[in-house]
Each structure stands twice: as C-alpha cells, then as structure tokens.
Amino acid sequence: MSEKQPSSGESTLTVVLALSVNLAIAVMKAIAGVLTGSAAILSEAAHSVADTFTEALLLTALRRSGRPADRRHPFGYGKERYFWSLLAAVSIFASGAMFAFYEGFRTVFGEPEEQTRPLVGYVVLGLAFVLESVSWTQAFRQVRSESAAHGRGFWDFLRVSDDPTVKTVFLEDSAALIGLVLAFAGLGLHQLTGSSLWDGLASLAIGLLLALVAYVLARTNRGLLIGQQADPVMVKSIWRRLSEASEVDAVVDILTMSIGTDRVLLCARLDFDDALTAHQLEDACVRISAELRTQFPDLDEIFLEPVPRTDPELRRRVLERYGDLS
C-alpha cells in the first residue's frame, strides 16, 4: 500500500445511503407482505429491517472508531469499528435469517395459504430492486476504487480489506438483490402453481442466504478483533525494506496487527551491525522509522527492537509462529 486513502467520508456516505434505502424498502415490503400474504416478501421485509439496524450499527462504528488515542487507549479506538461491525453481523442473523427461517418452515409445513394481490408484490419487489441497486452501486464503486488504489483485484481486496463497513454494506446489498430475485420467484411460482410451498421454499432460501452473509462478516470481524496480521503483501514489503537498511545485518522477526482501518502496529526485531555505537543505533532507529512511515502510511505505531539473531529463546518463538522458513 503506497498511499493511504481517505475513505472514511466515502464509507459514511455509503452507509447513510444504504440505511435510507433499507428503511424505505422495509416499510414497502412489510405492507406488500401483509397484502399478499407472501412469506417470502415478509422475510424480505425482515431482511430490510435487519439491514437498517445494521447500517445504524455501522454508523456507530464509524463515529466511535475515529476518536483519537488517549491515556486509557494509547493505540486509539480503531478496533471499535470491528466490534460494532460484529454486532451488525449478529443482527443480520438474529433479526433477518431467523425470521426468514420461521416464515419458511411455517409456510412449508403449515396449512396451505391463499395468495392475494400478487401484483402488489411484483410492483414492490421491482421498486425495491431499483432502490437496492442504487445503494449497491455506491458500495461497488467504493470497493472498486479502493481496490485499484491498493493495487489489488476487486475480490482479493474485499477479502483482505480492514474496513468492515464497506464490506458489510456491499455484501448486504448483494444479498438483498439476490433475496429480491428469490422472493419474486417464490411469488411467481405460487401464482402459477397455486401452491404456497414455493413461497415457503423461497423464504427458506432467503434465510440461508442471510445466514451465510452473517457468517462471513462475523468471521471477518472476529479475525480483526483478536489481532489479525496486516496485509501480507505489505508485511513482505516491510521485511524487504528493513533488510535493505545498511545498519541491519538481519531481520529476525516482524509482528504486525491491524488496530483500525488503515492503521497498523509494527514491531520489528532486528539484528543490527555490532560495530554501531549507541548513538548510531538510536539515529538508525529514528531514520528507519521515518522512512517506513513515508513508504507505508498505514503504519500507525512502529517499534524497532535490537536483538541478536542467535538468541535461542527468540529463535524458538519465531519457529513456533512461522515454522522453518530457511
């Protein structure tokens, strides 16, 4: 990563747009679900309600994670974004997937239900698809622009990105568009066959879709919360840059951790040239840190620790972590 991107403002725009769209869609779907008696549309209404709660949680994440470091939190509050994003994933499952499963099982195994006013359902699902497409397009544009800025492919960047807000919105909106297609299919097959079984199966499919999205997002934020390594490409570049320093004989170990979006903590254990004086060693550490910050703006805190490469205890710990890399 050669240049830090000021994506916080765009992330806020993406989340606010998604919240507004989902709130409007939730109301429309709820009315259409009651009028048509469609389990799939009611499941989609619950889906949009869950998405609305999710966007509210993501806005909280953006606001609280931006607070500056203080005495109690010397590394800042960046990880709050991961915590609130994890709650957003739980919200998707608890209020979206579970309701869709309930409606699906009730319709599939319960008494056959008569369909009423299917045209209302088609119109609402069509309007919802258009509105969701607007939100999805904004999220897609942000992911595409950030992936290009970081020199990565679209899906590769989405996989390694340390900004869970835009990833959550993009996956939510993608799931919403797929869910609308499923609801439309369930509604149409119910009308064609006269059997509510199709409506129930569509609702179950929507529940599975939401559960999958919730799992992916929960796993992503879990890794970031417990101290995930920074982008491996950046770590390798840092290792190479440190190895090129004239004062460094060997890079013994590098520890990195994402402490917030576009914020990385680095601890590098280096075997310096034994001929360096204490003053020269201090100057080297200051210069190397400054050069690293210039080349890798995501580095928020840098710790350079002089260590001998032959220390058996340190070597054992490195081998336990990475294996024999020789």
Care to describe what's here?
With 326 residues, the chain is mostly helical. The protein has two domains: 8-225, Cation efflux protein transmembrane domain (Alpha-lytic protease prodomain-like); 232-322, Cation efflux protein, cytoplasmic domain (Alpha-Beta Plaits). The protein is built from ten helices and three strands; from the N terminus they run ααααααααββαβα. Strands 1-2-3 form a three-stranded mixed β-sheet. Strand 1 and strand 2 (263-272) form a beta hairpin. Helix 2 packs antiparallel against helix 6, helix 2 packs parallel to helix 7 (197-225) and helix 6 packs antiparallel against helix 7 (197-225).
Short note summarizing the structure:
By secondary structure, this protein is mostly helical. The protein has helices spanning 8-36, 39-65, 80-109, 118-149, 154-160, 164-193, 197-225, 232-243, 278-295, 312-322; strands at 248-260, 263-272, 299-306.
Q: Mind sketching the topology for me?
A:
Elements lengths: L7 H29 L2 H27 L14 H30 L8 H32 L4 H7 L3 H30 L3 H29 L6 H12 L4 E13 L2 E10 L5 H18 L3 E8 L5 H11 L4
